[in-house]
Amino acid sequence: MGILELILQLVLAVALGGLIGIERESSQKPAGFRTNILVCVGSAMMMSLAVGLSQGSANSSETMVRMAAGVVTGIGFLGAGTIIHARGIVIGLTTATTIWLVAGLGLVIGAGFYAPALILAALIIATLVIFRRIEDLYLKKNIFHYHLKLKDSQEVLSKLRKLSFHHGVKLERLSVKREGECLLINFSATGEEQKEEDFTDSLMNLGQLEEFRVD
Question: Is the dihedral of CA 24, 27, 33, 39 positive or negative?
Fold first, then answer.
């Protein structure tokens, strides 16, 4: 394998992993833009290494299979770290699955199958974007509008985002306005009714609330 082909593989891994990462980042997922790029590039590099080491060897296919198995096994631990189980709710399965698929995408690129890699990347992005919209439209997820007034405190927005991630609720249209010593925070939250109830309970401990309203 020449240096130009290796560079092509790594650039393609950055591009495709980055496209998937942009979608994950825009959805406020923990494994976002840089994570997906690094997973894809790392997998592609490992498979390229296996291809290079096995050239001229009688057991070249066995070497590549072992490398692929090692990458998939290692990525399993990374994916497991994105899954959270709290209050009987499992969060992060889609993120973990995406990481696993991005690792597979890198292996395909590293093995030199560029057309299948493009098709796989397109299918991953289509599933994450298009089917998410179908899910929002037809699986009856609820939208709740929150209006909070609380005394200004450090990292209140960071705490708010952590709460939404913990409870599996997606925040949208977040706005913050200062009024004297207080903050007016307005946002919409999308999620299942039970998750929204747990999220609302947690908001009560977010800070020194002056006003709290949900539409």
Answer: negative
| Total-model pTM | 0.65
Kindly give, in sequence order, each residue whose CB lies less than 8 Å from that of residue 139, ignoring residues fewer than 6 positions away. Answer: none
Q: Give the Cα separation of 151 and 27 in Å (integer).
A: 28
Compute the distance between CA of residue 143 and CA of residue 171 in angstroms, rounded to an integer. 10
Q: How many CB atoms lie within 10 A of CB 93?
A: 12
| Domain boundaries, given as residue ranges, for the chain | 3-137, 142-214
Cβ atoms 198, 167 nearer than 8 A: yes
Contact of 176 with 207, CB cutoff 8 Å: no
Token look-up 């560079």 returns: 7
Residue 59 near residue 73 (C-beta atoms within 8 A): no
Which CATH architecture best describes the domain 142-214?
2-Layer Sandwich (3.30)
- Condensed to tens digits (0 to 9), the pLDDT of residues 15-27 reads 999 999 998 888 7
